Amino acid sequence: MRILVLLAALAMPVVAFLSQRGVFGPDNGEVSARYPTLLVAAGYAFSIWSLVFALDLVHALRQLRARWRDDPLLARVAPATAAGFALTALWMPLFSQGLFAACLLVIFAALACLLWVAVRLSDAGAHGGAHLWSWLGLSLHAGWLSLAAFLNLAQSALAFGWIHPQAQLVSSLLLLAAATALLLWFNARMRGNLAYAAAALWGLVAMWVRQSGSTLPGSDPTARMALLAAVLLAAQSAWLRLRARRLAATAH
């Protein structure tokens, strides 16, 4: 199973490279441009994938070392990690082909897998121990997907004709509220996972930047909602970490 984790970790940047060169069809930017939504971040935000892929590969290589071969935590999360990586890689060619229904199934399945892994690592205190690098990469991946899945849902709804291109505000605010609720819930569940929150904050701020300069009807309220979501998540993270430190100090 750990070999599968490595192979899936390698597949993600390879598939991303091929996808951006049009091997599977139009690249992500071209497909996104066909379905302009209010729930889209500024282009620079997607550079986070380079960091996520690099840290995921670090995890995949570390878990193969002799020191970690009998580690029960890494063995427990390996199947879900491999699945999450493989599904992330699969999403890219599906999106290039415009297979939005399949994309939704794949991205939410990937999110479920990596959220489960991030929670298990957080529960084990990996952020402060020997598995810090694994916790960091997998938490970032889960945090970004927690927002990206809803962005994909908004774009799919537009592609399916469920919403009108010029009347997206209500559905966009509802989806953004749902994404925010998910982020706050799991951040609280992980007692303030700073890597998880940081990935989502990166995306939320980039959404605010993009929508602040957009001409789509409803862009200004969406930009303000994205900024509010970012403020709420940042404030919650600060409070949760402060609370954790106080509890630790009291225990000692």
Residues in helix, %:
over 70%
Order of helices and strands: HHHHHHHHH
Q: Mean of residue pLDDT?
A: 91
Largest beta sheet, briefly? none
Proportion of strand residues: under 5%
Q: Globular, elongated, flat, extended or rod-shaped: what is the shape?
A: globular
How many independent structural domains?
A: 1
Spatial separation of the terminal alpha carbons: 39 Å
Number of strands: 0
SS element count, helices:
9
C-alpha Rg (nearest Å) = 18 Å
SS class: mainly alpha
- Spans of at least 5 consecutive residues with low confidence: none
Protein name: TspO/MBR related protein
Transmembrane segments: 40-61, 73-92, 98-119, 140-163, 169-186, 193-210, 222-242
Organism: Pseudoxanthomonas taiwanensis J19
Keywords: Membrane, Transmembrane, Transmembrane helix
Polypeptide structure, described:
There is one protein chain. The protein has 252 residues and is mainly alpha-helical. It has one domain (2-251). 76% of the residues lie in helices and 0% in strands. The protein has 9 helices and no strands. It has helices at 2-20, 28-34, 48-62, 72-96, 100-123, 132-160, 169-189, 194-212, 219-251. Helix 3 (48-62) crosses helix 6 and helix 6 (132-160) packs parallel to helix 8 (194-212). The relative contact order is 0.13.
Chart the SSEs and their pairings.
Elements: H1 2-20, H2 28-34, H3 48-62, H4 72-96, H5 100-123, H6 132-160, H7 169-189, H8 194-212, H9 219-251
Task: From the structure above, extract its key features.
single chain; 252 residues; mainly alpha; transmembrane; TspO/MBR related protein; membrane
